[in-house]
TrEMBL record:
All copies of domain Mre11 DNA-binding, residue ranges: 322-474
Any one cellular-component term (Gene Ontology): Mre11 complex
Protein family membership: Belongs to the MRE11/RAD32 family.
Designated name of the protein: Double-strand break repair protein
Length: 729
């Protein structure tokens, strides 16, 4: 009896405390700022998948619905609203429809922005969206950009800028990088006021982690702009919130941001980019703030961290106090994850593949049944992942295994993930780190260095760092010309260097490969720091610097062809001939510094517009040779200016030079090509036609035997012929 009475009193006191707390917060609605916090919505993820195409949209709509039902003052998003840097039209339309449905209404806004809005929202309008008299905004949305939807391009625009221009969201945290070296940034807060509650909202969109790490460790590189202290509102009255989108857990500390790097005056930190849901605020030792990590609202990778229940956070702030409430998301597709070790199975034969398949199939059926028992309000096919340790066993085909689960799970083709047990080194404190870190966008990816090391390959023309940058642009930024520009820049630079050395030292055939290798190694050393800086500028939204850097190195900065104009053969750059392993020493080359002539509009690279800037183009090209006739000696068609130089060097083995030919001359008949050397050259110079290529690598077998003795200017045989216009990368 005594125990029962004490339990009743304890329960009664707890209920009274909760009732008083609820009364306190509800009675102070005029002074309580209510914020719904979410991160990493990844709208548009797997939009082409027949089963999972609407998952991201359903989760984002549920977030907006919760905000409307809970009557929050605004929604705060921590980056990666879109999954793609260039979302499709379908994704944009659906996102705009959801925002318009829940954000456009006549609900009065009960807080105000008291800071300089032109600094907080650096767009054409420079004002918070609900103050625009042409729109009725009842639910403001404040968001920063992440690493998936960061600004890019010449105008440094993001997909979020489209929503901001439509007055649907308030885009902040887009800082300008200034200064020299690592650079510096200034973080200006959005000052919000509701009754007696004052909130300073700081935001920082995604910046490359390595660069931001260095900036935090560099004195005065990151400037925190504090609100002015007045008699009515001193510093201590401001509740400071910081929203960022960076790596939080990383094996390499230089590629992540440590919590202790942040300012100590902060009160609350919203951490985006990490997909594991750790929504309950965590205290940071030695700091005076708490961190919440809401995680993603949709599973973008099939790992253990993504299988945890998804939540958003309702944050209520009154004065300097706050109350967090986690709200579960019910529209998220069920996800079951399990680690399996085949060695732990008692009656499992390592040589019996069928028994292994039956064992794994039973586990998948158990997980499907477990997902069905959860009673999802909207039944849907679950996600199932088995991480199988097959040490001592043989693997089975995951595709064939998943065929029996078509229509039963949402991911039938990637249910199984086979791994082997590896020895993990203990850390300094004796603990063993987790083998699998939650980094969705970095899973199943390898860098260029790892791929080359696995295949025992050695780069001969392209530096690894610049190739890695091109891969980053192609995958993350959907830059379809990234590899073309990388190859073009390196080929141009290599050709120019070879041309200079060839004219100065008269290189022999065997020296070319050595010079190419030396030049590549030197370029690799120079490109490593430049590679890091360029990646930083791309990630931080400084595209102009990367474009200027490429053009300054001798490459061509191509922005694409006009959609209305076809891309013909004449638009091919002069260094785009097929690559060869070796180059003949008997072929003469020289620097061609003539201004290329276009056809008025200049659609190709370096053509037509050279006269505007007064620039000259230096190329290293193949000596164009027309198709020779059978049983006849071959003669090269050269210009008048080059003819005299050839006659002087006829008796010695010449250094590589450039020779130009007219496209019409290269198409003459076989008889004309053999007998009109000087006449064709004068015709070429008088007509002023464009130089083209003739890469005559396919020759008749009997040409060598029947051609007879050749002059010093004759073209070498097909076995030694190679192109000086481009070198192998």
């Amino acid at each position: 009896m005594h125990v029962d009475s004490s339990m009743k009193r304890s329960r009664l006191s707890r209920n009274l405390l909760l009732s008083f707390s609820n009364f306190f917060w509800r009675a102070a609605d005029t002074n309580t700022l209510r914020i719904l916090v979410a991160t990493d919505c990844h709208v548009g993820y797997l939009e082409n998948d027949e089963i999972r195409r609407f998952d991201s949209f359903n989760a984002f709509e549920e977030i907006c619905s919760i905000a409307s039902q809970r009557q929050v003052d605004f929604v705060l998003l921590g980056g990666d609203l879109f999954h793609e840097n260039k979302p499709s039209r379908s994704t944009l339309v659906r996102t705009i429809e959801i925002l318009r449905k829940y954000c456009m209404n006549d609900k009065p806004i009960q807080f105000q922005v008291v800071s300089d809005q032109t600094i907080n929202f650096p767009n054409k309008f420079g004002v918070v969206n609900y103050e625009d008299p042409n729109f009725n905004v009842g639910l403001p949305v404040f968001t920063i950009h992440g690493n998936h939807d960061d600004p890019a391009g010449v105008d440094n625009l993001s997909a979020i800028d489209i929503l901001a221009a439509c007055n649907l969201v308030n885009y902040f945290g887009k800082v300008a990088l200034g200064g020299n070296g690592v650079g510096n940034i200034a973080l200006h807060p959005i000052l919000l006021r509701k009754g007696s509650t004052n909130v300073a909202l700081y935001g920082l969109g995604n910046i490359r982690d390595e660069r931001l790490n260095r900036m935090f460790q560099t004195p005065h590189a990151v400037q925190w702009i504090r609100p002015e202290s007045t008699d009515d509102c001193p510093f201590s009255d401001w509740f400071n919130i910081f929203v960022l989108h960076q790596n939080r857990v990383k094996a390499n500390p230089k590629n992540a941001i440590n919590e202790h790097m942040l300012a100590k005056f902060l009160d609350f930190v919203v951490w985006g980019h990490e997909h594991e849901c750790l929504v309950d605020p965590q205290e940071v030792l030695g700091m005076d703030f708490h961190i919440t990590q809401p995680g993603s609202s949709v599973a973008t990778s099939l790992i253990d961290g993504e299988s945890k229940p998804k939540h958003v956070l309702l944050l209520e702030i009154k004065g300097n106090e706050y109350r967090p409430t986690k709200v579960p998301l019910k529209s998220v597709r069920p996800f079951k994850y399990k680690n399996v070790s085949l060695q732990d199975a008692a009656d499992l034969d390592a040589n019996d593949v069928q028994s292994v398949m039956d064992h794994l199939s039973q586990m998948v059926h158990d997980l499907i049944a477990e997902a069905a028992e959860e009673g999802h309000p909207d039944p849907m096919l679950p996600l199932v992942r088995l991480r199988v340790d097959y040490t001592g066993f043989t693997t089975i085909n995951p595709q064939r295994f998943g065929q029996k689960f078509v229509g039963k799970v949402a991911n039938p083709h990637d249910i199984l993930l086979f791994t082997k047990a590896v020895k993990r080194r203990p850390t300094a404190d004796g603990k063993i780190e987790d083998e699998e870190k939650l980094r969705p966008e970095e899973l199943n990816q390898q860098n260029i260095e790892a791929l080359l090391a696995e295949s025992n390959l050695k780069m001969e023309i392209l530096p690894v760092s610049e190739l890695g940058l091109a891969l980053h642009k192609f995958v993350s930024k959907d830059d379809k010309l990234a590899f073309i520009e990388c190859v073009q820049e390196n080929l141009d630079d290599t050709q120019n260097k070879l041309a200079e050395e060839a004219l100065a030292d008269k290189l022999q055939e065997d020296d070319v490969i050595v010079k190419v290798s030396e030049h590549m190694q030197q370029r690799e050393k120079e490109s490593i720091p430049r590679y890091k800086e360029t990646l930083t500028s791309v990630s931080s939204g400084d595209p102009l610097s990367s474009v200027q850097h490429r053009t300054s190195q001798g490459g061509t900065s191509r922005k694409g062809n006009d959609d209305d104009e076809p891309f013909d053969d004449d638009d091919v750059p002069e260094s785009s001939t097929p690559a060869k392993r070796k180059a003949p020493a008997s072929r003469a080359v020289q620097k061609d510094t003539e201004t290329p002539r276009g056809r008025g509009r200049g659609r190709g690279r370096g053509r037509g517009r050279a006269s505007q800037g007064g620039l000259t183009q230096t190329t290293l090209n193949v000596v164009p040779v027309p198709r020779p006739p059978r049983r006849a000696s071959r003669m090269e068609t050269i210009s008048d200016d080059d003819d005299e130089n050839n006659e002087e060097e006829e008796d010695e083995e010449p250094a590589p030079k450039i020779k130009k030919t007219n496209s019409k001359t290269s198409q003459r008949g076989r008889k004309g090509a053999a007998g009109s050397k000087r006449g064709a050259a004068s015709s070429s110079s008088s007509r002023g036609g464009r130089s083209t290529y003739v890469d005559d690598d396919v020759e008749d077998d009997d040409d060598e035997a029947d051609a007879g003795p050749k002059k010093a200017t004759a073209t070498p045989s097909s076995q030694k012929r190679s192109s000086w216009g481009s070198l192998r990368g």
